[in-house]
Amino acid sequence: MSFPLYTDYATYLARHFTGKVQKLTVNAGFTCPNRDGSKGRGGCSYCNNSSFSPNLDAASTSVSAQLEAGKRFFERKYPHMKYLAYFQSYTNTYGDIDRLLALYNEALSVEGVVGLIIGTRPDMMPDRLLDRLSQIATRHYVMIEYGAESCHDATLQRVNRCHSWADTVDAVERTKRASLHVGLHLIMGLPGETRQMMLQTIQQACRLPIDVLKLHQLQILRGTRLALETDQVPTFSVDEYLDLCCEIVRLVPPDIAIERFTSSAPADLLISPRWGLKNYQFVNLLHNRLTNSQ
Ligand code: SF4
Questions:
Q1: Å from CA of 187 to ligand 1 middle
Q2: Residues with Cβ < 8 Å from 59, sequence gap 6 or more?
């Protein structure tokens, strides 16, 4: 659905592809440098990777087999659907470059796969890999999705991201110069952040040459360090977050698409906030509020 007050993801995809396009998540069995000690240990304080990696168990299955399985789900209803292979779990540029390229090329060799979306950290994009991705991008759509989370270094430090906002600025600029599409992932409501700080993050992000913003509310999940601080970390009510998103929509220019506003972790992992809303239900509420406030 397209909504006139901001560029949604469907509109963005329609600018780049003809016909229906679907992201298929793949888990290529990568790890994270913020867990294995090369950048940090213990990971980000809010991270429980199984909450955002629906096919975490799939890592033992080949990338092409995962994509074929994903395609089977859609192709009966949409026989002409095209697909984007979404390397989502952990840090998908962390590893030997030849191995990384072999996995990306395996994904692109699957019939109907027309591009890649590669999720990673902003401090994990070597120029040598960018050069190779830039070559792939002469034939296929390639987006790099960076987990930036906040523009405030104090926040990044507090949640143990082990990278800075300057890393994000540098990675985004180099990626754009390499003629790749850029997405930025941001979390609203990180510990210690005021509403003003969150809006500053949106403003700083919009000054960068990005194509897509992907947002979500902070979720406190079982098995994370943040779960030990629940009494010190307030999370949004639906109403508060709707208000914030209305303001965000007004700040984001139409050349930057907003792919998502919320995330919904599995109920057995989620401590707070427990809104009981699907992502599309939140979007409907947001559209109503935006329409009524025009
Ligand atoms: S959020 Fe990303 S960078 Fe942080 S620990 Fe989890 S996988 Fe690693």
A1: 13
A2: 27, 28, 29, 89
Q: How far is CA 28 from CA 1, 51, 100, 157, in A?
A: 31, 17, 9, 28
Quick one: which of 94, 88, 87, 23 has its CA closest to 52?
Answer: 88
Q: Which segments of the chain are extended strands (E)?
A: 7-8, 21-26, 82-87, 113-120, 141-149, 181-188, 212-217, 220-221, 257-260, 270-272
| CATH code, residues 7-292 | 3.20.20.70
Identify whether the C-beta of residue 153 lies closer than 8 Å to the C-beta of residue 121: no
30, 44, 45: residue to mutate for ligand 1 pocket, most atoms within 8 A of CB: 44
Beta bridge partners of 119: 145
H/E element, 154: helix 153-158
Count other C-beta atoms under 10 Å from residue 251's C-beta. 13
Residue 183 Cβ < 6 Å to ligand 1: no
Query: How many angstroms is it from 120 CA to the middle of ligand 1?
Result: 9
Predicted confidence (pLDDT) per residue in 219-232, tens digit:
999 999 999 987 78
Check if the beta carbon of residue 210 is closer than 8 Å to that of residue 251. no
Domain residue limits, the chain: 7-292
Look at residues 47, 51, 17 and name the one whose alpha carbon lies nearest to residue 33: 47
Q: At what angle do helices 238-251 and 279-292 cross, to 10 degrees?
A: 70
The per-residue pLDDT of the chain, averaged, comes to 94
Distance (Å) from CA 132 to ligand 1 centroid: 24
pLDDT band (50, 70, 90) for residue 1: very low
pLDDT tens digits along 35-82: 999 999 889 999 986 655 555 566 679 999 999 999 999 998 999 999
Over residues 182-238, the pLDDT tens digits come to 999 999 999 999 999 999 999 999 999 999 999 999 999 999 999 998 778 889 999
